[in-house]
From TrEMBL:
Protein name: Beta-phosphoglucomutase
Catalytic site positions: 11, 13
Lineage of source species: Bacteria, Bacillati, Bacillota, Bacilli, Bacillales
Predominant subcellular localization, coarse grouping: cytoplasm
Cofactor: Mg(2+)
A single BP term in Gene Ontology: carbohydrate metabolic process
GO cellular-component term (any): cytoplasm
Keyword Cytoplasm annotated: yes
Reactions listed under catalytic activity: beta-D-glucose 1-phosphate = beta-D-glucose 6-phosphate
InterPro entries: B-phosphoglucomutase_hydrolase, Beta-PGM, Beta-PGM-like, HAD-like_sf, HAD-SF_hydro_IA, HAD_sf, PGP-like_dom2
Residues at the site labelled Important for catalytic activity and assists the phosphoryl transfer reaction to Asp8 by balancing charge and orienting the reacting groups: 118, 149
Similarity comment: Belongs to the HAD-like hydrolase superfamily. CbbY/CbbZ/Gph/YieH family.
Superkingdom assignment: Bacteria
Keywords: Carbohydrate metabolism, Cytoplasm, Isomerase, Magnesium, Metal-binding, Phosphoprotein
Length: 223
């Protein structure tokens, strides 16, 4: 079946900029205050996961999930977000990851649409700091999304707002649950990270510097 490519839909944290590292540092600091230690392997399970769900996973890891009231959990999550907010204040356009600006330029030069599907409630702030807010046709508001990744809702919402069929979209993600969400939406998935971790992606690049518009579109056409 021939498909006509119409849009690229990107995740933000860990794809467009290295803010995934700031999420990691902020969660790690909070976890340590609670006497819970976690490593980068566990952090893979937090990527693409909403703020409250991430907190729950950390509390379960430390066996402390039953020790806090909903209000206390909300204040723990707010504390992490305050720390994260401080870290992202340093973000400038220089923090756009290698390979992303040329890829966005290629997409634009072919009049394809650009969407952002991040579950982060800080996505608008980060995109503004990167100078990319107006480059995208659609930035999905995470607050409007009912089901987080791996549910395909956020990618389907992006496609709908862009006015394109999911099968005409390519999604780009660094998270396991993100790749699952793209595939669940019926889109072609490009993963950024390890092939082993992102085994469900249609094409994987170890880092964004290796992204190739020509190769991605060739594989999309063959899929
Ligand atoms: C995702 C990140 O993009 O956003 C997760 O991969 C993060 O690590 C999630 O927890 C929610 O972000 P925020 O900014 O709303 O706490
Ligand atoms: Mg991500």
């Amino acid at each position: 079946m021939s498909k006509l490519l119409q849009a690229f839909i990107f995740d933000l944290d860990g794809v467009i900029t290295e803010s995934a590292e700031y999420h990691y540092l902020a969660w790690k600091a909070l976890a340590e205050e609670l006497g819970i230690t976690f490593d980068r392997a566990f952090n893979e399970e937090l990527k693409g996961v909403s703020r409250m769900e991430s907190l729950e996973k950390i509390l379960v890891l430390g066996g402390r999930q039953d020790e806090f009231t909903p209000e206390q959990k909300a204040s723990l999550a707010a504390k992490k977000n305050d720390h994260y907010g401080t870290l992202i204040q340093q973000i400038t356009p220089a923090d756009i990851l290698p390979g992303i600006a040329p890829l966005l330029a290629e997409i634009r030069s072919r009049n394809l649409k650009l969407g952002l599907a991040s579950v982060s409630r800080n996505a608008f702030t980060v995109m503004a700091s990167l100078g990319l807010k107006d480059e995208f046709d659609v930035i999905v508001d995470a607050a409007e999304i009912k089901r987080g990744k791996p549910d395909p809702e956020i990618f389907l919402t992006a496609a709908q707002l862009l006015g394109v069929e999911p099968s005409a979209c390519i999604g780009v993600e660094d998270a396991v649950v993100g790749v699952e969400a793209i595939k669940g939406a019926g889109m072609f998935a490009v993963g950024i990270g390890s092939e082993e971790t992102l085994a469900k992606a249609d094409l994987v690049y170890a880092h964004t510097g290796l992204l190739s518009y020509a190769e991605i579109v060739e594989k999309f056409d063959q899929a």
